[in-house]
Amino acid sequence: MKILVTGSAGFIGFHVSLSLIKRGHEVVGVDNINMYYDPSLKFARLGELGITKEQASEHNTLCQSSTYGDRFKFIRLGIEEKNHLSVIFKTHKFDKVCHLAAQAGVRYSLENPDAYINSNLVGFSTILECCRHHDIKHLVYASSSSVYGLNKKVPFQEDDQVDHPISLYAATKKSNELMAHSYSHLFNIPTTGLRFFTVYGPWGRPDMALFLFTDAITKEQPIKVFNKGEMERDFTYIDDITEGVVKVMEKSEEERIKNNEYYKIYNIGNNKSEKLMDFIKEIEKHLGKKAITNMLPMQPGDVQKTWANIDLLIKDYGYHPSTTISDGVKSFTEWYKSYFKV
Fold first, then answer.
1. Is position 169 annotated as part of the catalytic site?
2. Most buried pick, 30, 65, 315, 330, via CB within 10 A?
3. How remote is the C-alpha of 80 from its chain's centroid?
């Protein structure tokens, strides 16, 4: 297939692009490479896909991979740039779209709301309009476990009420699900939203806990532990996430139509909630260093516990995450030490 992957210089987008390429698909990646975190990491990810920093620095210019040839091309572009994006859809005639571009981060949304409105709402509407007018067979897009907000019932299930988001980031992700539903209903566009649960692993984002903790412990600096460590997360390793996304992307349209799947929402997680302090112990073990902990109260917009019920994804796609926390953290710390030459 020919697939558009938005956010292809991002953490999940990079891994999904690489997996699709290796499975024989042709991928066109789009990313604006913004300054939310150090863009050198984004350029390095693209380097792994065969796109140089010089190539990726040019705005709205199609670059071809030196490693994967025609199977990967890249364009630096913001998804809210409707006119440019429409041309890309018209030129490349994609079969499917994997939309992973978004302004991420719960805490950042408290200080920079405009970034979330532009990328997560305006940008998402642009993607929907392009899919509508260019005969896209399936749109798979990133939602988030954040939509569950103040939900007290665990594990979180797709049919739980998600009407009480506690951050603007979560509100935009819930909005994406509603917008997708309306386009599926009005224009028969098959859409699938994936609610990601705390993704971690090599090439991860520097604003995520594993990266922050590893960096601080390595440099013998204190780590910030919110809610005094009384936190639990459904940590999901990037290879397990990638496997799930690719399974959804590769499902045949005949089977999708047969099952009347025009609008679906799935949790995609590890199906297990881990204590934050146990997670920190694994980092300490693999770094061979003890953390200096700074115990702090709960942060605005944060939740105490997440836990994904993934029965639907298991039933429909045979999804089975298999990476333990110990193995996943080990892979990340090994990548971290190699990347930063520690």
1. yes
2. 30
3. 18
